[in-house]
Design brief:
Elements lengths: L1 H20 L17 E8 L6 E6 L4 E8 L3 E8 L2 H13 L8 E3 L7 E9 L2 E8 L6 H15 L15 H8 L4 E3 H4 L8 E3 H8 L11 H4 L5 H10 L4 H8 L19 H5 L4 E6 L7 E7 L6 H21 L3 H21 L4
Parallel strand pairs: 5-7
Antiparallel strand pairs: 1-2, 1-6, 2-3, 3-4, 6-7, 8-9, 10-11
Length: 352
């Protein structure tokens, strides 16, 4: 009995000592009333400025702003109010998903040109920030919170992760930029995000203010066979509108041979791959290897997912053709092409 009493006394004493020395992690606070200081921020973007980025935050009063940026000074901002119920739903998600238990940063060193995501929240005097850099592996605690934030945003901003609404700013920016190369926001009394100035050249290029009939940014000009090379080269180095991208994807009028703008006339793997701005289309018949299917004009507006899918098909296709090609010189060329495409795929698309 004496031994039992000692044990009863020593267990709570042991737990108290552990708590004092910090050996036990304090549990997450249970879901409850919305803390008065609850606020959060969410941002996401690509390593390339021209691919765009998004910034969403809300303070403890529910005052929210959503900013989308592209390039250096292209932007559009939305301001609105989140209800207490919306904020409470978000707070409960942070707690239920044990967001505070995540590491501060997750990064895939093998990915170079990827993207980043960051979520931060404050509640009950504590702050937690988690950043993902070039990280596409499964992280449910982060992604579930991210999805809940996106739901709250979509309730106030239509199609938030689309940059088409930047075009609504073209008229106002053109009026401000009349005869100017750059506008300092502070001097002009305009609220704008960093770098706090308007680059009129960048907005002009995006909005096509100075578009001329003989310009490689004009879809009608680029639809002519004689101008396809100039327009292809322009779009491979600059931002192109979706209208211009679509024009260049279609066949140019008066096509009569395998050349730029007339890629459908490139009827063999060699003739297609030897023409710059023509893309090989692959098929994968059941039980066989990747096969050359056809040739089409390059899609300059393809997103990262489409580009990576094409690269994956391409390096496997060339590898297959190097194995079945009877001409040793051609086989070596296909093998080299496959290796180059696979290296590009691994550096740009693959995650480990």
């Amino acid at each position: 009995m004496k031994l039992m009493n000692n044990m009863i006394i020593s267990v709570p004493l042991f737990i108290s000592l552990l708590a004092i020395c910090g050996c036990l992690e304090p549990p997450n606070p249970p879901p409850g009333n919305l803390p008065a200081d609850f606020e959060f921020s969410y941002s996401s973007g690509a390593t390339h400025l021209e691919w765009g980025a998004y910034y969403f935050n809300a303070d403890s009063q529910g005052n929210a702003s959503f900013l989308k940026k592209m390039g250096t000074t292209l932007w559009k901002e939305y301001n609105f109010k989140l209800s207490e119920q919306e904020r409470d739903n978000l707070y409960q998600t942070f707690i239920e998903k044990n967001f505070s238990a995540l590491n501060g940063e997750y990064q895939d060193q093998a990915v170079i040109d990827g993207g980043w995501d960051e979520i931060s929240f404050t509640a009950n005097g504590s702050e937690k920030t988690v950043s993902l850099i070039n990280y596409s592996m499964d992280l449910p605690q982060f992604r579930d919170v991210e999805e809940k934030i996106k739901e709250a945003l979509s309730a106030h901003v239509e199609d938030p992760f689309n940059f088409e609404d930047l075009k609504q700013e073209c008229g106002g920016k053109k009026q401000l930029c009349e005869g100017k190369e750059r506008i300092d926001c502070k001097e002009a009394g305009i609220e704008c995000p960093e770098p706090y100035y308007i680059d009129c050249g960048e907005w002009g290029e995006y909005c096509f203010w100075e578009e001329e009939a003989s310009s490689p940014t004009n879809p009608e000009y680029c639809n002519l066979l004689a101008n396809r090379k100039e327009c292809n080269e322009y779009c491979s180095n600059n931002y192109c509108s979706e209208e211009l991208c679509d024009t260049l994807k279609y066949e140019a009028p008066a096509c009569n041979s395998c050349t730029q703008g007339c890629c459908s006339l490139c009827t063999s793997l060699d003739s297609c791959s030897e023409n710059e701005f023509c893309e090989v289309v692959w098929i994968h018949p059941s039980g066989e290897g990747w096969q050359f299917s056809s040739c089409e004009n390059k899609n300059f507006c393809a997103d990262q997912y489409e580009k990576c899918a094409d690269l994956s098909l391409a390096y496997q296709g060339y590898s297959y053709h190097s194995a079945i090609e009877e001409n040793p010189e051609k086989a070596a060329g296909y093998a080299q092409k496959s290796e180059e495409l696979q290296e590009e795929y691994v550096s740009s698309c693959s995650t480990k």
